[in-house]
Amino acid sequence: METQRYDVDTVKTGKNITEARRRKNIGVDQLAKALGICGGAVYKWERGTAMPRIDNFFALCSILDVAPADICVFYNQESTEKMRQLCRK
Predict the structure, then answer these.
(1) In degrees to the nearest 10, what's the CA dihedral of 24, 27, 31, 34?
(2) Model confidence over 39-48: pLDDT tens digits?
(3) pTM for the full model?
(4) Does the domain spanning 10-88 belong to CATH 1.10.10.10?
């Protein structure tokens, strides 16, 4: 069985996190507290130097009221579209 690789564009994903957070008028520290993590982790996500764990990613989407497919960007457009389809199910 061939394993499929999905490479996330962490910089674009980070920018999407920042934009969604600002639209909700939530500060970095406020978001971090809601997630039960330190603010430094959120800063790393927003700069694109790290990605949230999957549980934090879905909690982040819930807090920011956005679909996962609207936050996460892949280098491969086909992978981005697959994620959009999976999130609709």
Answers:
(1) -100
(2) 999 999 999 9
(3) 0.84
(4) no
